[in-house]
Specification:
The chain is of the alpha+beta class. It has one domain (about 10-80). About 45% of the residues lie in helices and about 10% in strands.
Length: about 80
């Protein structure tokens, strides 16, 4: 059976969804899947990269310099997970 990698989260500092992930109020399974603190508490490692500025979905916008950096980090994450 394949072992799945830990979650990789790429976000920008002011992203409302990042704030929800870090400071969510719900204390149930739904939050555990969304909340890095809850994931870590449950023993699930996470990798969180926060960029200073941007907008939601910036990784898909190649015209932004930060998107290139995010893709570089994503590729490095994939290589680490595959052990290459």
């Amino acid at each position: 059976m394949w072992r799945l990698p830990w979650p990789l989260l790429l976000a920008f500092k002011e992203d409302e969804l990042l704030k929800d992930l870090l400071f969510g109020k719900k204390k149930d399974l739904e939050e555990a899947t969304r909340n890095p603190a809850a994931l870590e508490k449950a023993g699930v490692p996470i990798e969180l990269h926060v960029f200073e500025d941007g907008l939601h979905g910036f990784v898909q916008m190649p015209m932004l310099d930060m998107a290139g950096e995010a893709v570089t980090r994503l590729c490095a994450f994939g290589r680490r997970c595959l052990g290459t």
